[in-house]
Design goal:
alpha+beta, 7 strands, 11 helices
Length: 374
Amino acid sequence: MSMIRDLRAVVRPSSRVSLRKDTSPSYDTTRAPGTSSAVVDCAVYRDGARVESAGPLSPQEAMRLVRRDGGFVWIGLHEPTEAEFAGIASEFGLHPLAVEDAVQAHQRPKLERYDDSLFTVFKTIHYVEHDRLTATSEVVETGEVMCFTGRDFFITVRHGGQGSLRALRHRLQDDPELLAKGPSAVLHAIADHVVDGYIAVAHAVQDDIDEVETEVFSPGRKGGVSRGVDSARIYQLKREVLEFKRAVAPLLRPMQLLSERPMRLIDPDIQKYFRDVADHLARVQEQVLGFDELLNSILQANLAQASVAQNEDMRKITSWAAIIAVPTMVCGVYGMNFDHMPELHWLWGYPAVILLMAVLEVLLYRLFKRRGWL
C-alpha cells in the first residue's frame, strides 16, 4: 500500500497549478557538460537511488556501470540528429526502425514491441494562452516524447520546445521505492504526466468553446441574432481541437495494451497502474470528441443565424423598395406626355395625388412593420 501511495504522489503532485495560471512553456534544452550535444541528462539508478559520479557520464560509461554493478540507466535526449543518436542506438541495440522514427519525429502515438525493448510514442500538448480567440489563434501546441524501455535502460527522445521531463525526473528521484521498480516505473510516470497534461488542456479548451458558444447564442442588437461571431474563429478552434484529437485518440490502444497484456519488460506491480492512465485517457478522448461535435453544432448555428440576419436585411430592403415604388409609379404615370389623363386640369389634382401617395406609403409602412419586416 505504501508503494501505491508513493506512486500516486510522485506522478500526481498535490500542488498542481492551473494551466491558465502557468502557461509558460517548459524549455529544458540544456545539455549535460561533456556529453553529446543532444543529451540533456544521463544517470545510473541502482536500488532506486541515483548513482553519483565524479563527472558527467556518457551513455557508454553509464551502460558499462549498469552491466558491471546492476541497476538501470536513464538517458534523456532533445532532438538528436541521426549521427548523435547512432552511437547510443548501437550501444543499446535499438531497432533501426524505431531509431528512424525517433530521429525524424512527427510520429503517430503508438506502442511497438521488439525483442529486447519497447518503443512508445507520446504526443505532448501545450495550451497556448491568448487574450481573444481569432481566426488565426494558435490554441494548442504539440511536441513528442519517444521512450525506449529495456531491461536495464530507459531512453527518452523529446521533440519540440515544451514537455520537459526534468521536474518529473526529480520527483521520481525523491521516491527510491518507486524507482527501484526499474524502467517500467519511469514509463508509467511519463505516460501519466502526458495524460495529466491532456486533462489540463481539455479544461482550457472547454473555456474557449464556452466563450464562443456564449457569443453565438447571446441576443444580438436586433431580432435575437448575434452579429459579432466570425465563423472563421469557430473553424480555427475546430482545427485546433482536431490537432488535440490526433494526439489523444491513437494513444488509447497502447495504454490498454500496457495495462492488459503481460509484458516481461513491465513490472507486474506497475502494470496495474496503466489501467488508471488508460481510464483518464478515455475520459479525455470523450471530452475531445464532445468538443468536436459541439463545435459542429455551434458552427451550424452560427451559419444559420448569419442566414437569418441576411434574410432580415433583405426583408428591410424589399420593404423600403416597395414603399419607394409607390410615388415612383404615380410620378412616372403623370410624367408621360399625354393630353387626356385623369384630373390633369383639375385645381386640386396635384394635392390629391400627393395625399394619395402619402396615404399609400403610410399604409405600406404599417403593414411591413406589423409583419416584422421593418
